[in-house]
Amino acid sequence: MRLYRVGVLFSVLGLSTATAAPALAQSPYDGTWNVTIVTKSGSCEPTASSTLLVTDGKISAAGANVSGSIGREGLVRVSINGAYANGQVSGNAGSGKWNGASAGIPCSGRWEAVRQ
Questions:
Q1: DSSP 8-state code for residue 61
Q2: Looking only at Cα atoms, what is the longest distance across the chain?
Q3: Are 43 and 84 contacting, i.e. CB atoms less than 8 angstroms apart?
Q4: CB 47 within 8 A of CB 96
Q5: Considering the entire predicted model, what is its pTM?
Q6: pLDDT tens digits, residue range 18-30?
Q7: Alpha-carbon distance 108 to 61, whole Å?
Q8: Phi, psi of 60 (to 5 degrees)
Q9: How far apart are CA 101 and CA 82, in angstroms?
Q10: Based on the number of CB atoms within 10 Å of its own CB, is 58 exposed (0-12), middle (13-18) or buried (19 or more)?
Q11: pLDDT below 50 — which residues of the chain?
Q12: CA distance 86 to 66
């Protein structure tokens, strides 16, 4: 189920390893994020939620093929197993769009995130 993978993707948006980093390397968006994904078109699951961690602006997840980042200006770009998401965070909240496929059929939607 591709939306599950997209959920993991956004889990990654908020969850990576919790290793300590030098103060200068921290980004203003580091921390734990709760992300909700909503499908607007296609055959992916209607909704999914995940808890994610951002460390030094990098997005990753244990056991998942995820890569992404949040820039200092809050621009979010993430990919996971062929699904892609982008958007904007500011302060403790953010939102954006995602697209992927389920059984080869395209699907897309929106995501929202809140930092804990």
A1: -
A2: 44
A3: no
A4: no
A5: 0.76
A6: 444 445 568 899 9
A7: 21
A8: -155, 170
A9: 8
A10: middle
A11: 12-22
A12: 14
Which three-class secondary structure state does DSSP give residue 101?
Answer: strand
CB 106 within 8 A of CB 23: no
Q: Which residue has the tokens 């993978």?
A: 5
Could you tell me which CATH class the domain 2-115 is placed in?
mainly beta
What is the rounded distance in angstroms from the CA atom of residue 115 to the CA atom of residue 40?
24
Total residues found in the chain within this entry: 116
The residue with tokens 């200068």 is 24
* All structural domains of the chain with their residue ranges: 2-115
> Residue 84 burial by CB count (10 A; 0-12/13-18/19+): exposed, middle or buried?
middle
- The count of other CB atoms within 10 Å of the CB of residue 57 is 17
Q: Do residues 79 and 73 lie in contact, with contact meaning Cβ atoms separated by under 8 Å?
A: no
**Assigned token pair, 55:** 């460390």
Spatial contact of 52 and 33, defined as CB atoms under 8 Å apart: yes
